[in-house]
Specification:
Elements (H helix, E strand, L loop, with lengths): L2 H23 L4 H31 L7 H29 L7 H32 L2 H33 L4
Helix pairs in contact: 1-2, 1-4, 1-5, 2-3, 2-4, 2-5, 3-4
The structure holds fe (ii) ion (2 copies).
The site of one fe (ii) ion (FE2) has 5 residues, from helix 2 and helix 4.
Length: 174
């Protein structure tokens, strides 16, 4: 499986978590919305850390993008990573605080994060990865592919375990 297939599968996995976050954040019951947003954000933030670590590993090894389009794509994605890092920090800070009653600030941050992530994944898949794929050497791609598929398996298992733990908690089956 190529490194980009694994990264795309991670995106698909993360998008399912993002969908759940978006649905939870607009639950008409404010307490349910707050609880679901908190739980889902914890899962998302953790999985995102692993995903971004792998992406940095991939792109830190990237040869210089030799075309103006490649450089433009790289700068665009770097800018998005910068904004995403700050948004994740903001979400983490809000999670660490005591709930502010109805969790409005946390839900707003979650919705912003979800929106930017959707855009970011599309830009990576359409603009950055094809360029990198075209310029990276075969041995680099091969090594990264192995690392990416191991991480994908771990992430899939970790998210499944997390959902199971949350669902047990919700149903009182502890
Ligand atoms: Fe990214
Ligand atoms: Fe990504």
């Amino acid at each position: 499986m190529s490194v980009f297939t694994s990264l795309a599968e991670e995106h698909a996995l993360l998008l399912r978590v993002i969908g759940r976050l978006e649905r939870g954040a607009v639950d008409p019951d404010p307490r349910a919305a707050d609880r679901e947003t908190r739980n889902t954000l914890l899962v998302l933030l953790r999985a995102l850390e692993a995903h971004e670590r792998l992406e940095h590993l991939v792109f830190d090894e990237a040869p210089a993008m030799s075309t103006p389009d490649g450089e433009r794509a790289r700068r665009l994605i770097e800018g998005q990573h910068f904004v995403l890092t700050r948004l994740r920090e903001e979400a983490r800070d809000l999670l660490a605080q005591k709930p502010d009653g109805d969790g409005v600030a946390l839900r707003a941050a979650a919705v912003r994060l979800a929106r930017l992530l959707r855009l970011h994944f599309t830009d990576e898949e359409r603009k950055l990865w094809p360029t990198f794929n075209a310029v990276a050497g075969r041995s680099t791609l091969h090594r990264l592919s192995r690392q990416a598929s191991v991480q994908l398996r771990l992430m899939t298992r970790e998210i499944d375990l997390y959902w199971a733990a949350i669902n047990d908690y919700m149903t009182g089956d502890r």
